[in-house]
């Protein structure tokens, strides 16, 4: 193999490897959003879903679910409990997500409620956390004092670790009390923000050092029907004013229905922007373009009624970038973030297709470009990289001078290996490419049997050498979906799996991470007999310079079952320090996977190799992905 270290072919964008976030598989509620209470504001279709009435020590009472939709359409329900006994306790338990709440011994939890005493009553609240075998593992007391709605909170520690704790809210003292937004959060969250995100999960995102964060999806942007589309303006500000809606994945896939899957939007647009900022990723919001999910109802907003949708996009740009003299910039400032979020791109529609999409896209694009000519627009090319829908959009958007085209591919591992040259002949002067959703499917596309196995991960690595080699065209790429709860998923494979307490990174995650941490700044040619390495000897390779660290970075993927002894002749360099660092990701079997029990079975291993002159010799194991970093002298 030959590497011409002085012949820069393409600049690698800082955005190159990023993250695709969607609230699917309990990614947000029940996942990264650390709220432990399910249906905290009684807004599910069955308002007491997740809650169970409880009585003890002779306590008694009854509860009404009150609908105040006229005054509070965004948070219509609360409960009114009548405590009818002098003695004992009456109340409710909450089952959390997937049958429990993950709590840890010694950690502090914050219980809060919005409450109102009625008349002269003085109902007292006793909060209990029940662990395994119903043992009480944490408790606290709280007496709401006001006759007007007010928020009350109290902290307590858990004395045990369990993934399936239950929260009990007991009421005592005869009287009537109104309750809403009954909430329990760990004190320890990402950056210890109150009401924040699960630290272990966000840390895994930060560890990728992603170039961008795409949010909030995925199909939830569209909604199964337009009423349940994602509307960013309803996801900011006080959490009790964020209107809950059913999650689009609630009933998807008959094999894993999730009737209790809703969106509380506790993870809303402000949190997405702030998370992107925290982890150094460029924000990439995707907005509904007046189309519901085309896999479902395919409802459309008439073209002459599109204004509010377009306005949402314009207002979002102002919210992200405007200063306090603008309406939406002021709101961001008032929400505690005076500095702009530096939004540079926005997606119009998720995975739309057809002429109906083009018609709406044109209206959005004209409005956005007129007001914000520097904002780049991400345009979808439908659900598949092949077929007539893709061709129509590809041709149309290219002729209309689109900025960035979003290609999606969920396909067998072989497709990924076979497509390592996909971008070699793309028009260098046309739109940039965002490989916005992809994942190798071990069994069949969208099969519930799909695994995050090593063959899939290695094939993705092979494909990604092709993305990187074509970094002058491909500016962004993200695996999808990102998160999945091991007991609550609708889609597989996924990048990161978790339960109520723990999480693990898949082999696919490590591939993404290694590409991102080692992307370098500029592609240089790595060839075999003057050809890019994309399948010869079942090998795939790319090389880049890292001008920030003054290194040459080689990525080599061996998808064959045989070891290979390879040698790289490097030209155009003044020489390298004797020892180079090597990172190897490999597994003995193509079926190898990680799991909660063995989270790092397939994970990177570091070593070193000596270089002689400008020649690097490397022993490459079967079925492995290697990265070598050579430091210039
Ligand atoms: O990633 C899962 C789904 O796949 C996304 O919601 C959608 O955009 C695509 O069809």
From TrEMBL:
Keywords, alphabetical: Glycoprotein, Hydrolase, Signal
Organism domain of life: Bacteria
EC number: 3.2.1.55
Domain Alpha-L-arabinofuranosidase C-terminal stretches: 436-624
InterPro entries registered for this protein in UniProt: Alpha-L-AF_C, ASD1_cat, CenC_carb-bd, Galactose-bd-like_sf, GH, Glyco_hydro_b, Glycosyl_Hydrolase_51
Catalytic reaction annotation: Hydrolysis of terminal non-reducing alpha-L-arabinofuranoside residues in alpha-L-arabinosides
Residue stretches in coiled coil: none
A Pfam family per the record: CBM_4_9
Family: Belongs to the glycosyl hydrolase 51 family.
Protein name: non-reducing end alpha-L-arabinofuranosidase
Organism this protein belongs to: Mucilaginibacter angelicae
